[in-house]
Design a protein that fits this description.
By secondary structure, this protein is of the alpha+beta class. It folds into two domains: 175 residues, Aminopeptidase, CATH 3.40.630; 150 residues, Alpha-Beta Plaits (2-Layer Sandwich), CATH 3.30.70.360. Helices cover 30% and strands 17% of the residues. The chain contains eleven helices and 15 strands. The chain has a five-stranded mixed β-sheet, with helices on both faces. Bound molecules: zinc ion. The site of zinc ion has 5 residues, from loops.
Length: 402
Amino acid sequence: MTSEPTAEVVDLCRDLLRIDTTNTGDNDTSVGERRAAEYVAEKLAEVGVESALHESAPGRANVVARIPGADPSRGALLVHGHLDVVPADADEWSVHPFSGELRDGYLWGRGAIDMKDFDAMVLAVVRHWQRTGVRPPRDIVLAYTADEEAGSDYGARFLVENHRGLFDGCTEAIGEVGGFSYSVNDSQRLYLIETAEKGIDWLRLHAKGRPGHGSMVHDDNAVTALAEAVARIGRHRFPVVVTDTVRAFLEEVSDLLGVELDPDDPETAIAKLGPIANIIGATIRNTANPTRLSAGYKDNVIPGRPPPPSTAAACPASPSCWNGSCASWSARTSRSSTSSGSRPWRPPSTATWSRPCPRRCAPRIRARVRCRTCSPAAPTPRRSRSSASAASGSPRCGCPPI
Ligand SMILES: [Zn+2]
């Protein structure tokens, strides 16, 4: 039957994959979101679903529709997916990331599992409903958003702040990561339910040393200090914290796999999960990954202050504990890299890293840390020479100086 959602879902997904919706985090270089939103609106309109495009900035569009349910007294269900994707370098791919190529029974492309697959599935089901006269039991609000991959300022946040009424009556929401399945064995496949998002904090580390000529003996090289700090961050393993939902997941998978998985030894257990070990492994501890690095301006010159790298870090258990950690961490990094006479930087102890955030969100330390949890409006960090001078002035977040 041509009206079956499965008959067209691959085509819908392939069409979406072929629309390059790369979100670079910069409006000048991000592309395609409006085109993708228009495509979705067109596919909804074909079956009589009226939708509206909400453009938050030129080219950055969201599309929202409401499908009336049979029982208006029930709360509406929000079903949402994002249309943007992270950048993809075609040289690193065996197929072109925006070709939507079908190969070996799989559809390939940037966004195929994050999350144009889900976008297409929802679209296919809704079109099927419309064609066959199915009315959902309650209102369904569809939202296809921009900018999920870079903070959602032009997507979900824009809609909530500027078009809150679109979500009137919504009592539940379903979104990412739909369609992301895990095959336990040849006959059993799990569809995971995400119960929370990891918190995230972007760090930008700066180091300061003594500039000099690259050919000389030099004991205060900012590049060396920064590289050492970044390497330690990248290798650091945070303490394990098993939340109730992760524990329940491990117990459930243990039963399904028919193997001994000890939730009290989650690392051993998770290593047995195969392809999803990296995903589940990130739910039991904070993770930190350096993502960008740059330094210097000439091959034979030691710079005094290399440009900063960014370190992406996320916290599954408690965003607040991360902020407490990074403040301490960055302060130590800064000290070691700015004075040749100071103690070498060491990773903080476990106790320090896992300490609940004492609201020390580091607006006063030399290393720049944006603390969104304690203070979304935290001022740009100042470079203070002493804690006494740091104590003057009051950060908007009310955090004590470090
Ligand atoms: Zn996603």
